[in-house]
Amino acid sequence: MAERAGIIGVGASVPERVLTNHDLEQMVLTSDEWITQRTGIKERRILREGEDPARLGIEAAGMALASAGIRPEEVELVITSSNVQIMPVPGSSPFIIEGLRDRKGTTDRHVPFFDLVAGCTGFIYALEVARCMFGGGYRHILVVGLESLSRFTNWQERETCVLFGDGAGAVVVGPVEGGRGILASHIAADSTQWALLRVEAGGTRTPATAETVAAGQHFLRMEGRGVFEEAVKMMERATLLALEQAQLSKEEVAWFVPHQANLRIIKAFAARLHLPWTKVLVNIDRYGNTSTASIPLALAEAAQDNRLRKGDLVVLVGFGAGVTYGATVIRW
Ligand code: UT7
Asked: Which domains does the chain have, with CATH numbers?
């Protein structure tokens, strides 16, 4: 049977510092009860001041390569998805490559890279780009989802600061056989709704100034309820369209891996599709919403504890700023 692009290695990394709901009770007017009931989050990992977010990406990438049995010098392309990059220029990827280069056995090969911005759906978008690049001849592609939104969080605004966590997940896309691999993908976006999730300043329309910082325009802003309603519909739509493209039914799926934004969103999505809850991967209670890192983080955990098995049919599905959404169907 023909060779296809598949996920041949997976890894993840989160900061050591744990921020619990009880810690947040000391920071803003909120409660463990409110956060648990409305979001399902109990704690999240947050970078310490001065801690380099690149380390998360490097560790996740290193684990993914090790689990794939691939040496860093065999990587032919790196795609890093983030909402906000380690530096506006040159982005995030070069810092991950630099970190891998420092590891034993790495050569000085000039590996091409680019960063991809598609909100929390970034990982699904990056996977689709990797699949296309594989079709164009790239054999081993490192896809990293790296997020450190704590650096763009207003820690005095209870509506957003309870939601997000930092983390990174990575996969190696490479050749697989025997009917395995990425079977189908549906990516889409409704750009008319871009204002639902935004960081207003720090880009070229409104460059960062003392005034924009004083006005808090560099913080992530969100219309939570609007995002919630769109998210459920978009995840359902993307899942059904990707499965239809793969000519498979939802009953054949072993694992649904939704973006971990809010437990209520995940439950509403599962209810609309009548999915058995036992088939839905959830870890939002421990990490909060790690945005574009949430799907590979959940995949890495499930692969590590052997819940994900070779041959399992897996659906990744997400939504995010833009408003972007998408789903990927994989024979693991
Ligand atoms: O990756 C994509 C990123 N974003 C998302 O996925 C977010 C999607 N949206 C959500 O998850 C939910 O909309 C939230 C969790 C953000 C909010 O839940 P909600 O059920 O939509 O609550 P709400 O915004 O309608 O607010 C209900 C009340 C308000 O008070 P009043 O006006 O009813 O008196 C809020 O001020 O809850 C209040 N509230 C809080 N109370 C305690 C908002 N945040 C908090 C808080 N603690 N942290």
From this structure: 4-179 (3.40.47.10), 183-331 (3.40.47.10)
Instruction: State in Å: Cα 222 to ligand 1 middle.
Output: 10
Identity of the amino acid at 194? W
pTM: 0.96
Cα of 289 from ligand 1 centre, angstroms: 14
Q: Is residue 290 lining ligand 1, measured as CB closer than 6 Å?
A: no
Nearest atom in ligand 1 to the alpha carbon of residue 39 is 15
pLDDT tens readout for residues 200-253 = 999 999 999 999 999 999 999 999 888 998 999 999 999 999 999 999 999 999
Specify the residue with its C-alpha closest to ligand 1, atom 38. Answer: 159
With a 6 A CB cut-off, is 67 part of the ligand 1 pocket? no
Catalytic residue ranges? 120, 259, 289
Q: SS3 sequence, the chain? A: CCCEEEEEEEEEECCCCEEEHHHHHCCCCCCHHHHHHHHCCCEEECCCCCCCCHHHHHHHHHHHHHHHCCCHHHCCEEEEECCCCCECCCECHHHHHHHHHCCCCCCCCCCCEEEECECECHHHHHHHHHHHHHHCCCCCEEEEEEECHHHHCCCCCHHHHCCECCEEEEEEEEEECCCCEEEEEEEEECHHHHHHEEECCCCCCCCCCHHHHHCCCCCEEECHHHHHHHHHHHHHHHHHHHHHHHCCCHHHCCEEEECCCCHHHHHHHHHHCCCCHHHECCCHHHHCECHHHHHHHHHHHHHHCCCCCCCCEEEEEEEECCCEEEEEEEEC
226 lines ligand 1 (CB under 6 A): no
Ligand 1 pocket member 63 (CB < 6 A): no
- pLDDT at residue 272 in the model: 96
